[in-house]
Amino acid sequence: MTLATRFMQANQNPSHYCEYVGETEAAIAEGLADVTVIDTPTVLAGLEQYAVGSVWTAEVWGPYLRKAATLDQVMPMLTAQLTQRPAQLCFFYTAADQALSAWLAAHHATRTQETIWRLTPIAGGAGVRQLEALTPAVQALHHQFWRGQLPPVDATHWCFVAIRDGRLAGYAYAEVDGEVGRLDFVAVAPTARHAGLATSLIAAVWAAMVAYGRSTVFLVQSERAVAAGRLYAKLGFEPVRTLIADTLWVPLDDQKARC
């Protein structure tokens, strides 16, 4: 049995579902190229590590405990594989995983809820164009809402922009992830809101994904983005599931993890 198969089978348990793990064996196998794997008799897990600005981040695949293992035993195995500290460990899972939820709450993880939406056909996109390369203006608008840099544009990572009065008014950033598409970011400048730009940007992403052969497209909405949730419901998008997003801070001395 391949490593990708083991991750896929472990993730099919609703009580231990992790959103970071791909939907198909092929997507998992591709993702594993960038993941540090912990595969022991007590746990199967992965760490996808990268920098978000100056913050070292590790997205945790799983962890999937084996036999009578406990999270107190397993978490030091995860932190031991961090390539930099301080760092933040990110978990993205369902409320059905009560043991993980309770452990992270007891260790003061920062918690939010996020909803996965599936896009449905949406017309529009007029006045939106696709960039061949990211611009400083796009990165600057991105930084108004999120930390870190947008990855470069390439064959499967796309950026769309709306220009009004000669200035950047909004952007959408999307990627092809195996057999599905993902709308990673969409933002409209505060001075350009309430003019339908977010809808036009999303419509442009949808059209590009369909042209590429990807008619299943997902996006993630934070519980803090209430207006975005109302827009997605108005557009007829389908809420797939609501997940817990926990962040656990690992200091230079990680003997005691804190948020």
Question: What's the structural blueprint in terms of helices and strands?
Answer:
Layout: H1 3-11, H2 25-31, E1 35-39, E2 43-52, E3 55-65, H3 71-79, E4 87-93, H4 98-106, E5 110-118, E6 128-130, H5 136-143, E7 157-164, E8 167-177, E9 180-188, H6 197-212, E10 217-222, H7 226-234, E11 238-250
Counting DSSP E segments of at least 2 residues, the number of strands comes to 11
Largest sheet: 11 strands, mixed
- SSE pattern, N- to C-terminal: HHEEEHEHEEHEEEHEHE
- Proportion in helices: 25-40%
- How many domains make up the 3D coordinates? 2
Number of helices: 7
Strand order of the largest sheet: 1-2-3-4-11-5-10-9-8-7-6
Mean pLDDT across every amino acid position: 94
Strand content: 35-45%
Describe it for me?
It is a single chain. This protein has 259 residues and is an alpha+beta fold. It folds into 2 domains: 3-114 and 244-250; 120-236, Aminopeptidase, CATH 3.40.630. Helices cover 26% and strands 36% of the residues. It contains 7 helices and 11 strands. It has helices at 3-11, 25-31, 71-79, 98-106, 136-143, 197-212, 226-234, and strands spanning 35-39, 43-52, 55-65, 87-93, 110-118, 128-130, 157-164, 167-177, 180-188, 217-222, 238-250. The protein has an 11-stranded mixed beta sheet, with helices on both faces. β2 and β3 form a beta hairpin. The longest helix is centred in the last third of the chain and has 16 residues, at 197-212. The chain is globular, with a radius of gyration of 19 Å.
